[in-house]
Amino acid sequence: MRGDREKDIPLYRPTAERNRAFQYNGAIDSALANPYAGLLDDERLHSANALGLALRLGYAFSGGAPGLLARTHLKIADDALILKVPRAQVAFGGETVDRRLRALARALDLEPKLR
């Protein structure tokens, strides 16, 4: 945590702001994320953002069904982030999965690939 400043950040937000939380797209500098960004140093903030984007990708792909994720792999090779999906599961992809894979790859400074 950053020791150079103290922050009091509410965990509860009025309804309108809570609803916006579901629209968070991984932009660390967004108005929604900005009050919380100061809680972490830059390296941890980057890691937390990447983890959050990876979780969003996994949920978008699986719809919350853990069995689908067990047969799917995410790996980094060369300068690419590769989502490996068995042929039988390709139908579970789509625009949302593509968008979230691109967002995660961008956050990691990698090229997204779906195989």
Alpha-beta classification:
alpha+beta
CATH superfamily: Hypothetical protein af1432
CATH architectural arrangement: Orthogonal Bundle
Order of helices and strands: HHHHEEHE
Rounded to an integer in angstroms, the radius of gyration calculated over CA atoms is: 16 Å
CATH top-level class = Mainly Alpha
> Which word captures the global form?
elongated
What kind of sheet is the major sheet? 3 strands, mixed
DSSP E strands, number: 3
Summed over residues and divided by their number, the pLDDT gives a mean of 77
Question: Roughly what percent helix?
Answer: 40-55%
User: Number of domains in the coordinates?
Assistant: 1
- Give the DSSP E fraction (strand runs of 2 or more residues): 5-15%
Classify the fold: give the CATH topology.
Hypothetical protein af1432
In whole angstroms, how far apart are the ends?
38 Å
Q: How many helical stretches?
A: 5
Strand order of the largest sheet: 1-2-3
Poorly predicted runs: 18-22
Structure description:
- Helices cover 43% and strands 12% of the residues.
- The longest helix has 21 residues, at 42-62.
- By secondary structure, it is an alpha+beta fold.
- The chain has one domain (26-114): Hypothetical protein af1432 (Orthogonal Bundle).
- The chain has a 3-stranded mixed beta sheet with strand order 1-2-3, covered by helices on one side.
- Residues 18-22 have low confidence and may be disordered.
